[in-house]
Design goal:
Elements (H helix, E strand, L loop, with lengths): L9 H8 L5 E5 L6 H9 L3 E7 L2 H11 L6 E5 L5 H8 L4 E7 L4 H5 L25 H7 L2 H12 L4 H10 L6 H11 L11 H12 L2 H15 E11 L2 H14 L16 E3 L9 H6 L7 E7 L5
Parallel strand pairs: 1-2, 1-4, 2-3, 4-5
Antiparallel strand pairs: 5-7, 6-7
Length: 306
């Protein structure tokens, strides 16, 4: 299957990095390199170091970035090793960073990856298929209490107890179709009117399998630490838990007296580019349904520690 992924809010991302100092921008979630290629094409003073743990994504990204030669580097890694990878490449300072969190269209649409409740396949959900637990491992080995915690924490699932008990009663659960049916059957009819209820369970399991929330803050801290004066960081989040972490990390760096204003006070080293988060345009959300839940936040380093 050809790797396909439509990058979200490209124009907004390009605007964020349009005026950063010449240097390296780290794309911490490279995917198919849609954002990276757009950045390289729009700004000849920038190079991109792209990080991804998905072999299929890296193959597609390297092909996409071939025209940019040495300005583009693609590295297989999980983004919580961002600092180590930059050290290995000799980049003590960066001009920007981008995190496009969540799962790509290609990963969802490829049934064998196990991310989709709409397509039957093995319960995998690993970004890096060469290591770590699969979703099947979690579903079939976790205790009821752990399953409930996963579904509540990462899926905001109010029927977590019912679903967890149904899963345990029907173990072993081996395919995405089997799991989706279990979740649907365990969900009251009144709560099926707003879409497929298995979406929340699949999201929760994906986050658990890939430790997505656990590693996010450390990766953001590493990127922010290397940001040069005038450098900017941007994060696209699609899950409320991700967005809360990004919001808190950014807020902790900005000295403000009013959370309704992004204006920094005193000797703050960072400033928010705008208050709160931006959403995709109505047109983009209509054309790309997976963009609808995106929330974009951005920050700039305005000074170094005195």
């Amino acid at each position: 299957m050809t790797f396909q992924h439509i990058p979200v809010m490209v124009e907004e991302i390009l605007a964020i990095f349009a005026d950063v100092p010449p240097g390296v921008v780290v794309d911490a979630t490279l995917g198919g390199a849609g954002h990276a290629a757009a950045l390289l094409a729009s700004n000849p003073d920038l190079a991109v170091v792209g990080i991804d743990q998905d072999d299929e994504a890296l193959t597609a990204a390297r092909h996409q970035l071939e025209p940019y030669g040495e300005r583009a580097t693609a590295v297989k890694a999980r983004f919580d090793t961002l600092g180590t990878k930059l050290d290995e490449l000799g980049h003590a300072e960066i001009s920007g960073f981008l995190f496009d969190l969540g799962v790509s269209s290609h990963q969802i649409d490829t049934g064998q990856r196990g991310f989709s409740y709409r397509t039957d396949g093995p319960l995998d959900m690993r970004m890096d298929q060469g290591s770590g637990r699969t979703a099947a491992d979690v579903v079939n080995q976790a205790s009821e209490r752990d399953l409930v915690d996963i579904l509540r924490s990462y899926g905001d699932e109010k029927h977590a107890v019912r679903i967890a008990r149904s899963i345990i009663a029907q173990r072993p659960v081996e395919t995405t179709a089997q799991l989706a049916d279990i979740v649907r059957d365990a969900t009251p009819a009144r709560d099926k009117r707003r879409g497929d209820p298995s979406k929340r369970t699949f999201q929760a399991l994906r986050i658990e399998v890939n430790n997505e929330l656990d590693i996010l803050q450390g990766a953001l801290d590493a990127a922010l630490e290397r940001l040069c004066v005038g450098g900017r960081g941007a994060v696209l989040a699609y899950h409320s838990g991700e967005d809360r972490i990004v919001k808190q990390v950014f807020r902790d760096l900005v000295d403000v007296d009013d959370h309704r204003s992004p204006v920094p006070l005193n000797n703050a080293e960072f400033a928010l580019l705008w208050n709160g988060s931006k959403k995709p345009s109505t047109g983009e959300a209509d054309e790309n349904r997976r963009a609808g839940s995106a929330r974009l936040r951005a920050i700039e380093r305005i000074a170094v520690a005195s």
